[in-house]
Amino acid sequence: MFDQQPGPDPVQMPTARGAYASPQVPGVSTGYRRWAKVFVWSAIILGVLMVVAFVLSIVLLVLADADVNNAAYGYLAIVLWAVIVVVMPILIGVAIAGAVMTRHVRRQRQAGTIPA
């Protein structure tokens, strides 16, 4: 082990100082911009529908509490809450994807890569 000699230094490639350029990000396609808008508007529509479902569930609970004969409204409110719980991760996923894609499109537009 001690009788081994270190190998020669690797050959250095000649380079100019400061010659490194960061990689260029390719421009976004029209399909990418279209899907960014679809995701953003889907998130907005899902958010509005969830707010409507929440308000409707509160109204249904008030109706169920007002009269014993309207007790089924309370169960409908619980179903609406279950729908809200199920749709919430979908809303979060669509909103995050839309925000990231829209930010990427804006940066490309500011860099002048894609037309306004």
UniProtKB/TrEMBL annotation:
Highest taxon of source: Bacteria
Keywords from the UniProt entry: Membrane, Transmembrane, Transmembrane helix
Region (Disordered): 1-20
Transmembrane domains' residue ranges: 38-63, 75-100
Protein name (database record): Uncharacterized protein
Species annotation: Kribbella deserti
Classification lineage: Bacteria, Bacillati, Actinomycetota, Actinomycetes, Propionibacteriales
